Amino acid sequence: MSGYQQADEEAARALIEKVSPLLLRYFWAHASHRRFADDLLQDTWMRVHKARHTYRGGEPVLPWIFAIARHARQDNYRRARRVEIRETQVDVLPETAASSSDVLRDVTDMDAILAELPASQREVIVMLKVSGMTIEEIARATSSSAGSVKQKAHRAYRKLRDLLTSGVERQ
Amino acid sequence: MRPDEIDRILAQAADRAVPPGADRDAKKRVERAILHDLHQVQPLAPPWVFTVVFASLFAGISVGVASALGMHGIRALAPDQRFLIFPALLAAAWFAAVGCAREMRPAAGSHLGALTLILSASVFTGLFSLIFHGYSTQNFVPEGIQCLVIGLGVSISAGLVIIYILRRGCVMDWSMAGLAVGALSGLTGLGMLELDCPNLKAIHVLTWHVTVLVGSGLLGYTGGWVADYFGRVKR
To answer: In sequence order, which ranges of B103-139 are alpha helices (DSSP H)?
Structure first.
């Protein structure tokens, strides 16, 4: 990251190469953002590029980038909601979404697993398990305390255990 | 089901979530956009520098304006009242300055604006009701309005200067930043009033001086929210 600040092209390329897959997995893990994942990745990197002078050498890079990605995602969500509210449906679409009873049919389906969690717990689980960040890194990225992140992860695990156990039993 | 089994299911699901090769084109596009505009940047000064700058602004503006208007308030206060009010103001302002400095960088720690505002409003309400007396409402509104206008005027001016400095960084959440700025600029207005206003009636200080602090915090939050909203619309 320090090399990127010094306009080192190789360092910038290496950073993009290393972090982009993690960011893409993060965006893909949120079903409502999947169709925007590419745009969100681009938007996040544009914001990273604009804000690169605020990174402090020696500090962990991932929380810094994910804090930016998180805001890009939130902005995108709010913008999409605003557009959806103003949109008028001109045709009746067929029902394609799974009903809540079908949600756990496939216990390894990412959306089904995560959809049952509240947004804050879902975000922690995605950062922890999909992007591979540590509790401390997540706490930094989400501007909260490590204790609060641990608590959210614990609650999410408890809920996931119940959901997955009941899903397996049903199968 | 054990935690490691949940981990395994999540890991498998995550691996399957992103289609293979999905990131290749995206990465190429990002590289093109970024490498095209790559130039050296000067890293932002450490957070403590900005904390000192914000705290100095608080002290400078409140003392400067009070000196211009006349230090009638500090002369009217008893030594024990001064000893209680000003250290509390300095401590609250330092806390608010740390909060403002944190808003300048992504992932710099928890937001402190709301906490500072709630703590300051509670501490000063308690403190003023303990050390000041007198609940007569004679000239309550005319004297109060004067303090409110001057106090808010100083707060808004201080807030604008703080925002100007804040823009050197990268503010992620303007609502939270607005709250932190509002808390610090409100404390600046309150500090100036304690130095300048000789009216020591509890009802006056509790109503009008504390309103400067709370009003400034709310103004900051609203301004930040509006900036966030229009920032999103523009993007």
So the answer is: 113-131
Per-position DSSP letters for A83-118, written without gaps between them = HHHH----SPPPP-SPPGGGTTSSTT-HHHHHHTS-
Q: How far apart are CA A153 and CA A161, in angstroms?
A: 12
Q: Is B6 exposed, middle or buried (0-12, 13-18, 19+ CB in 10 A)?
A: buried
| Each residue's pLDDT tens digit, B168-201 | 999 988 999 999 999 999 999 999 999 999 999 9
B49 touches A at CB < 8 Å: no
CB contacts < 8 A, A to B, total 147
Q: Are A136 and A52 in contact (CB under 8 A)?
A: no
Q: What is the largest CA-CA distance in chain B?
A: 77
Which residue, chain included where needed, has tokens 């095209």? B36
Residue of A nearest to B38 (CA): A7
Q: What is the DSSP letter of A38?
A: H
pTM: 0.83
- Residues in CB range of B82: below 8 A, 6 or more apart: B74
* B25 burial level (CB within 10 Å; 0-12, 13-18, 19+): exposed
3-class DSSP state of B133: strand
Is the interface score ipTM higher than 0.90?
no
